[in-house]
Design brief:
Blueprint lengths: L1 E5 L3 H14 L4 E6 L2 H10 L5 E5 L1 E2 L2 E2 L13 E5 L3 H10 L2 E4 L4 H12 L12 H11 L6 E6 L2 E6 L3 E7 L2 E6 L4 E4 L3 H7 L5 E3 L4 E4 L3 E6 L5 E5 L7 E3 L4 H9 L1
Parallel strand pairs: 1-2, 1-3, 3-6, 6-7
Antiparallel strand pairs: 4-5, 8-9, 10-11, 10-14, 11-12, 13-14, 15-16, 16-17
Helix pairs in contact: 1-4
Length: 253
């Protein structure tokens, strides 16, 4: 089976090639591309392969920019690092997808589905323009810095400097990686919509934490987890059993 791999991250492309070889050593990746421009040129001058593995966000834009310029008449499995909201868009349009980091079981499922397809493939009737809009909306700019107050002084704190946010009664504190504490004029609910979910996670009613601040995770009673942060917060940080799976998925993303 001939496969074209369109992925702008070399490590991700290497990982996919290893997974493909594990599934079937006879699979041949006949071309590796990393941009919309290169993909358009390749498909304009080559017959379609059996399968395309296509990353959503490429070096020079979204992969959906390819389709108005050239016809790709073969099955496509999208790969994406976006969250479950984007995944729902794929499910609505019945397009296969792999959510990064890609697990072998997920690739195996997608390739088994491909194996059941007939040789004469007709692309599904999907609204690629609508899908492109979904991903463009998800590329909104998250806040990268916050105004923070300490007594009568106001400072800018970038998200790279933040360990976690914690709620204390009516106040929300920004705690830096340098252990300094500041007040911010946001609720945790407002912060959830302003922070990049790849970098920050709502651990509980009181804490939103940066990935860089997670020092250790311990098994706790009742199927819960205890999260040790650096710097150490004033109270224990416990993740409820209902949020454990989501937290693990965030860590593994």
């Amino acid at each position: 089976m001939h496969v074209v791999l369109i992925e702008d991250e070399a490590a991700a492309a290497d990982g996919l090639m290893a997974l493909l070889a594990r599934y079937d050593p006879a699979i041949q990746v006949i071309e590796r591309l990393d941009s919309v421009e290169d993909a358009v040129l390749w498909f304009a001058h080559n017959p379609p392969p059996r399968l395309v593995l296509l990353d959503v966000q490429l070096a020079d834009g979204l992969c959906f920019d390819i389709f108005p310029q050239v016809s790709i008449r073969c099955p496509i499995i999208f790969t994406t690092a976006y969250d479950q909201y984007a995944i729902r868009a794929f499910q609505v349009t019945s397009i296969d997808y792999l959510l990064k980091p890609i697990a072998y079981a997920d690739l195996h499922r997608a390739l088994e589905k491909l194996r059941l397809l007939t040789t004469d493939y007709s692309p599904p009737a999907v609204n690629l323009h609508q899908l492109a809009q979904v991903f463009q909306q998800m590329q909104k700019a998250y806040k990268t810095r916050f105004l923070a107050r300490f007594n009568d002084r106001i400072q800018f704190k970038t998200t790279e400097e933040i360990a976690f946010f914690c709620a204390d009664g009516k106040f929300v504190h920004l705690v830096g990686l340098d252990q300094r504490r500041f007040l911010v004029d946001y609720t945790l609910e407002q912060l959830e919509g302003l922070l990049d979910p790849r970098q920050f996670f709502r651990l509980s009613r009181k804490y939103i934490v940066s990935l860089t601040a997670v020092k250790e995770i311990r098994i706790y009673t009742g199927g819960r987890l205890r999260v040790l942060l650096l710097p150490t917060p004033l109270t224990e940080v416990i993740i409820s059993r209902e949020r454990v799976a989501e937290f693990k998925a965030w860590l593994d993303h």
